[in-house]
Amino acid sequence: MNSKSKIYQKVWVVALPIVFQNVIDAAVNSADVLMLNYVGQSAISAVSLANSMVGILFMFLYGIGTGIAMLSAQYFGKGDLKTIEKVEGIGYKFALSVAALGAILCITIPKILMRIYTNDATLVEIGAKYLVLIAPGLIFWAVSAVYMSVLRCIGKVSTSTVLEAIALVCNVALNAVFIFGLFGAPKLGVIGVAIATTVSRFIQMVGCFFVSIVLKPGVRLTFSTMFKRYKNLEHDFFTMAMPAIGNDLAWSVAFSTYAAIIGRFGDDAVAAYSIVNTVRNLGCVLCYGIGSASGIIVGQILGEGDMSEGIEAGHICLRLAVVTGIIGGLIVLGLTPVALKLADLTPTALDYLKFMLLINTYYISGTSVNTCLIAGVFRAGGDSKFGFKCDLIDMWCYAVPLGLFAAFVLKLPVKWVYFLLCTDEFVKWPWVFKHFYSHKWAKNITREDVD
To answer: What is the mean pLDDT of residues 29-39?
Structure first.
């Protein structure tokens, strides 16, 4: 087997379990929307807007996870598991602090958080109840997110996928119980969705402890390293991971702002936006799998000290991202008639939904390429600053101002505003491709003196 074939094999060995995880995740989200469909359009809209706030925390944890992956993948390539455990401790310092802050805000000021996205009193009331009950789950989620990121980097991708799958299956099962009042349980609607999410995240965290204690994968789930100082390693984490966290926050807050912009157009627009995001997630499962795998595989190869093979792996991942982007668009196209048939929406909302789905048949290609390069390949070599600058300028100097101007100054219709917001991925392509082909991102970032 030649070098290219080995790289393709490595990428797919890592990517396929992540794709499977993403499929389950997207399927559960779809099931949630379908079940909430029986509660009412307002329930779908309220949960969607509340999850826009939770999505900011998710992206923060994702940023921490990719920061951990930048260092852990390379140290695994070097064969240094003890240093990975130290990286895990640094990750917990950030993840648990942020999750605790998010939980406190959700419990103490849920209505204020909801009013960021909508001025509809009904949606604010429903969403506020959801945020209060989902708050404890944020802590459980933070613990699991850090450890599963480590597991993926040390070659235990399937273990991480099983943990996520268990949590998501529990989530959809409990949703059904609490939404429909199965087995004698009360019909709780949106409140039931929040309880199901929190319980499933607790089960996932327990599973992480089980893996650490019983299966002993090579790196423990331990909080002891949280309370120790590793000056050089913390410096590396700050200089490499913090821009990644900033990048993901800039991106997620911008998308949250998109939701707020769409939210001002009313319940019909919000309901359509909620469902299109669910379908889009189904279309992106392959794209996100390749993006995550590229960061791990390229990082491991660079950690071994082979720069030329690392660069070759980056080019292979880009080709796969282009293909999966096209496939993702076709998936959205194929799901469009299904979504339009199953969605119990007003005629106006259905019209919005049809248009938004059409936009996403090509928009996913932009997402696929940028996720692979910015969040995968570049970060594999410790280069997170480029992505941070790129997305900060693209989202906050172009897309968000454009959306606000189009919606509130020009007062354009919903469809035009959504179309303009969905140009963000393609505007940054010239700079992203230029940086990729410069190969400046290909570096070995491991060190001997981690303390």
So the answer is: 66
